[in-house]
Known about the structure:
This protein is α/β, with parallel strands linked by helices. It has helices at about 15-30, 55-65, 70-75, 110-120, 130-140, 165-175, 220-225; strands at about 10-15, 35-40, 50, 80, 80-85, 95-100, 160, 180-185, 185-190, 195-200, 205-210, 210-215, 245-250, 260-265, 265-275, 280-285. Strands 6-5-14-15-16-13 form a six-stranded mixed β-sheet, covered by helices on one side. Strands 8-2-1-12 form a four-stranded parallel β-sheet. Helix 1 (about 15-30) packs parallel to helix 6. The longest helix has 15 residues, at about 15-30. The chain starts with 8 loop residues before the first strand and ends in a 9-residue tail after the last strand.
Amino acid sequence: MEPDRRVRRIAIVGGGLAGWLAAVTLTRKLGGQCSIHLIEIPESQGPGLAEATQPAVLDLLRFLGLDQNDFIDKTQSTYSLGTHFTDWPASGQSFWRPFGAFGALIERRPFYHFWHKARAAGLNPRIEYFNTEVAMAQAGRFIFPTNSLGVATHIRYSLHTDSALTQRYLRTVAERAGVIRLERKVVSATRSEDGAIDELQFEDGGKLRADLFLDNTGVRGQLIGEILGSPYDSWNTLLPCDRLVHVPVAIDEPRPPFARITAGTAGWSWRMPLQQSSRAGLVYSSAHQDDAA
């Protein structure tokens, strides 16, 4: 007789933005077919990290059945048309990475044919001049593609969000949908005959059995690394930056509808607006710059 492999209970170990997003997504997709538990240790939270999302986040909000305006209001989000990179790829140079396409069809032919033709003719047009999102970002403007004026109807945009407020918002949605939150500390786990995790064991002596486990314990990898013994695969040779600092700063008026990223000697800095403040941050390699500097 085949064993019953149906998933009746899911355990997510670790909260945070990723943990609660997983909980909400699974709840929406499974529609109450199984119970979902999220185990986390409560932590004091300061200002959240400003996150620059991609346009797909709007599709995600629709999939989750969330009202976009309500989400933006409660997470203090702002609209984004893309990112401006300064001192990339070299000092004094810059470029834009907008969310929308460059150019338009000309005589039913793709724009890049005419771009290459212009370059071959010795011209040096700047590619960002052929993008609606860049033009609007440089002018500090934004408009919804569904506007009644028929202006920029193909514009693509995304959001700048506060990670702490977004986590709080998703937790509220998840708990209303039936996700069970447990304030517990996982200390060990038992494993079944096939080697898979079978049951979590908590510091207070409690236990939780589940059919599917999600490890959201970050770089610690408590389930994947400590319990299952999967080795950590470091990409440090390709991604040397291992430090992150972020702070709230005075808001820019008017708020620019894009993020700014500036290259540095050991990493890069960024600045992006939220509704109540702007957020600045620094990502760098400790092998090339010490923490005090």
